[in-house]
Every structure is written in structure tokens, then in C-alpha cells.
Amino acid sequence: MTIAATGPVRVSVDRTWWQRHGTTTTVWALRIALLVVFLVLWQIAADRWIDSTFTSKPTDIVRRLGEWAGDGTLWTNTWITVQEIVYGFLLGAVTGAIAGFVLASLNLLYRVLDPFMMALYSIPKVALAPLFIVWFGIGMHMKVLLAAATVFFLVFLNTAAGVREVDRGLVDAVRLMGGNRRDIARKVVLPASMTGLLTGLKVAIPYALIGAVIGELVASNRGLGYLINDAAAQFDTAGVFATLVVLSVVAGLLNVLVGLIGRRVNRWKPLDD
Hints:
Elements: H1 17-45, H2 52-55, H3 58-71, H4 73-105, H5 107-122, H6 129-136, H7 140-164, H8 168-176, H9 181-192, H10 194-218, H11 224-233, H12 237-265
Helix pairs in contact: 3-12, 4-7, 4-10, 4-11, 6-7, 7-10, 8-9, 10-11, 10-12, 11-12
């Protein structure tokens, strides 16, 4: 028996490889099988039961991705969109986390600002795009700020909820032991609010992508949103689907990254059964 030096107590138990990874392997096998079945049915149905002009087919999408990868179109536009997503996500996440933590810690100020924040959150962010174009032009700044505005409220609301749901018993315990506001914030509120913060980060990832792509769809001459617009204007459905595949891959990679960060930050939490 071994005991981990830090974090939750882990007890090693002799189990076979299948006992340790069987469920995960089964889940992934079913996912891959479902995807393969869907793609095969799509390929078979195209031009037999449905018009591929409107739905394209997997082989055409793969061919289009190969063409774009060969001439550099895919990498250039993907890199631009990834930069907009990452910059917008970081800007929105950092400002949203700080604002959520600070405002939720100041009860009176939070109660005053709460209806205004909810009103701003309720505005469809796509409606901000024309205003952002007027303020910042059609360059990368506009897309980054549109993505950041989308991310900010999600991270802010989840972080604030995490802070406000902190166990008051823990706060009182630190006070009884002589802790000051800084000790409470650093040793109780901050760790306890991590779940809300990470939930906000995870939920915000696809919205950062949506914000950046909306900005590109509204006004841009580069990026994956521009590729969708350009392909749609030429009735190139394979190009549209190829771009959507790339966007899905980018979103998946960002989700994996946040999941890894979440595991590291939440090492102090009890292990799942």
C-alpha cells in the first residue's frame, strides 16, 4: 500500500488493465463506432437519397481539407482564428474571474451591480458586432474583444456564484483561529471558488470560439469565419463543412486543455467514487 505525498489519499489496488481502463476504453470505442456509422451512412445517402449539393459528403470534405492544407489556406486562417479565440478567452477569463471574485466578496457592491451585470449579460453579443466595428474597425482587435465580451460574463457569473456559495462555517472557523480577511480570501474563498471558476472557463470556451467566428462572419477577410462565408458564397458546402470540422477540433483541444488545468487545480478535492 502506498500513500500519495500530496493531495487526496490514493490507495493502490492490484487490478488488471481492463479493470482499470475497461470503462474508458468501452466509452471511446462506442464513440468512434457511432462516428464511423454516421459518416458511412452520410456517404451512402449522399447522391442516393439526398442531394449532396446541399449536404456534401465526407469524402468531398476530406478532399477539401487536403486541398486547403496543401496550399496553406487552412493553416493561415486557422492560426488567425486560434489567436482571436485564445486572446479573447484569456482577456475575458482574467477580467471576469477578477471581477467575479472581487465583487462577490463585497456584498453591498455586488447587490448594487448585480441587475446591471445581468442586463448586460442578456444582450445578444452578436448585436455588439456592428458597434465594435465602428469602435475598433474590422481587424483582429474587434474579434478579440467580441470574444472577450462573451467570455467575461460567463466567467464572472460562475466565479461570483462560487464565491457566494462558500461554506460560512469554514469562514467562521478561520476567523476564530485569528485569521484576517486576507487569510479568509486566500485559504477559504479562493480554493472554494475554483469549482465555479473552472465551470465558467469550460462553459466559456465554445463561446470564445463563437464570438471570434461571429466577428469574422460579420466583417473580415481572413480567419475560419471568412472561409465559411467565402465557401457559402460559392455554394461550396464541402468547404463549409470542412471549416466546421476544423472549428470542432479547435474547440475540443481547448476543452482538453481546460480539463487538464481543472484536474491540477482540484487536486485538493475528494476523489470521485
